[in-house]
Amino acid sequence: MSRRGRGDGGIYRDPDRNRWVGQLDLGIGPDGKRLRRKVVGRTKSDVAAKLRALRKEHDGRPGTTPGVQTVGELAARWLDTAVRARHPEGSPMWETYQYAIDHHIAPGLGDRQLRTVTADDVDRFLMDRARSGYSRSVVRRIRNTLSQVFRWGVRRRQCTWDPAAFAELPPSSIYEEATPRVNRTPRALLPEEARRFVNAAAGDPNEALLLTAICTGLRPGELLALHWDDVDLTKGVLIVRRAWKGHDQYRHIGEPKTRSSIRTVGLATVAVEAIRRHQIAQQRRRTAHDCPAEWEQLVFSSAAGTPIDPSNLRRLVKDVATRAGIGHLAPVRPSPHRRQPAVGCRSAQSRAGRPARSHHHTHGRGPLPAPAHRDDRRGRRTHGVDPSRRGSKLGPPFGPPGGSGTLSQTGETPETLGGQGISEWS
Q1: What's the 3-state SS for 70-95?
Q2: Per mean pLDDT, which range of 131-140, 246-255, 291-300, 341-350 is the poorest?
Q3: Cβ distance 47 to 39 under 8 Å?
């Protein structure tokens, strides 16, 4: 009897079952382990026929094409073809994918062979990223990028499956135990810190920008996209309806981040007076220098009359906070739908016997009504929040000069904050 050829499988008789058994080696499976199949029949010829059919079925499946061997090569080819076709080189999305590949995927999995990568390998890779101090959102973006690379490779027959689709994100305990790479935890200013920040910003060329930032809590892109027709200094309010998008050569002014971001925000008296002084100084500077006419409607611009990059604003806030000795500072944008602890005090309208009105509203919806609130029999708040307890963590309230709100959460009297016009907050 002649020996069976390579790849034909093996056939043997199982005396316990009184059956013929055939075994076929199909190579390495998706999990990185050797893939074997068994068939059973009454006769040896039946088993041999089943093995031939199984081999024919396996060989008929689409395989992989040569040329790409490692994960790093596949990721580089995906970036150069699929990503470049959708996003021009240098665009924000292209740079985001390039950063994920160059700083995470290539160092962690770049040398691994495509045919040997398993979901367990991706699990260990993501766990390493989490223990290195990266946040959950960053780890999720890395996994999504890696999954896009593998799915593209499957469509191009460079690999047979997507192991990242079966990988699990690390549990929350891993992120809590790891040391964050950057401390970006938002926090509110204490009264003493707010006083020191205001004093440190006094006399700065960007004093109006800094006071508006700390008094309103706007996003950097929203603050720097303000136009003069968005600001009403008589009523002491500003309207947020624009924001900077993208960066570098792709920067442009567009709509804010969400629909609810289109809103009206009240200005404190100290911010109104600072903006008035800034407007006069800006007009003198533009008269004396040849500033670009296309940016003359911007409220806040550089000394050359050009837009200020949001990263420069964050650097400026950090420098002033360092001079003030208050350490890390991250702006918190207040939300009218989030419950706040007791902050600030009542407005001049309330002191005059008229109910205070919130100037924070979404475009086309009108002012937000004060939600009803009551306590049930167990003392729990059941509907909304007491309007007298609404306010901002970092800035004055959503109202005109003298409106409700404060720079802190402690309810300290505004006279102690030391800024001109702040004494009208009570």
Answers
A1: EHHHHHHHHHHHHHHHHCCCCCHHHH
A2: 341-350
A3: yes
